[in-house]
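TASK: fixed-backbone design
INPUT:
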């Protein structure tokens, strides 16, 4: 569905970062780098734990920063044109 519908976004609050499926990490590194939003599921998963696990995923800095905050910033705070 993420490939078919460009306006669809996904949030990762259901997983500990180290438990993300490899298929999702691949999508995050490629076509989905601007469409997946990070969420920690706090207080179930602490931010300290999540940031440590994210650091261990080996993501490029650009991909990591987009996932951790850039995609949410763009989604919630950018001006959208009608029909997008």
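OUTPUT:
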């Amino acid at each position: 569905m993420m490939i078919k519908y460009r306006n669809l976004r996904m949030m990762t609050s259901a997983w500990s970062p180290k438990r993300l499926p490899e298929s999702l990490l691949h999508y995050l590194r490629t076509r989905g780098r601007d469409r997946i939003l990070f969420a920690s599921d706090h207080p179930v998963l602490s931010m300290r734990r999540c940031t440590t696990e994210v650091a261990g995923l080996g993501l490029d800095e650009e991909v990591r920063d987009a996932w951790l905050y850039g995609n949410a910033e763009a989604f919630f705070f950018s001006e959208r044109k009608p029909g997008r």
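COMMENT: The beta strands are 10-11, 36-37.
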